[in-house]
Specification:
20% helix; globular; PH-domain like; 2 helices; 4-stranded antiparallel β-sheet; 3-stranded antiparallel β-sheet
Length: 123
């Protein structure tokens, strides 16, 4: 399944911005720009967490902002601003990222800080 959404304005939810979000089972692609085009990709297996926020104006115009927290070095946060069907896309991202991690047999590990451990106690 592929979702293609455009960034919209908060007022009247018009798609007059030049940013397109393409979400597939394999990756998330953000294409932005009019004269100079920038394309950013993040593989789905790198998506660790997803957050949905809706401001008052976004709720009036049935929009939402989805933030993907990734393990990617270039984009630790992918923000899909003011998109329609934000609830469906958030659920799709959560399920697709989990499935992509299962397919690649990758495991999300937490970064544990060892600064509290006294090295004199370890012998």
């Amino acid at each position: 399944m592929i979702y293609i959404e455009k960034k919209r304005t908060r007022f009247l939810a018009l798609p007059i911005c030049f940013t397109t979000y393409t979400i597939s089972d394999e990756k998330v692609t953000i294409t932005s720009g009019f004269l100079n085009i920038t394309v950013d990709d993040a593989f789905m297996y790198k998506v660790q967490d997803v957050k949905l926020t809706k401001s008052f104006m976004e709720r009036i115009f049935k929009l939402g902002t989805v933030t993907c927290y990734t393990g990617d070095t270039t984009h630790p946060e992918l923000v899909l601003l003011h998109i329609r069907n934000a609830n469906v896309i958030k659920d799709f991202l959560m399920n697709a990222s989990e499935e992509a991690r299962r397919k690649r047999r990758t495991m999300h590990t937490m970064d544990i800080d060892n600064s509290d451990v006294d090295t004199d106690d370890i012998k």
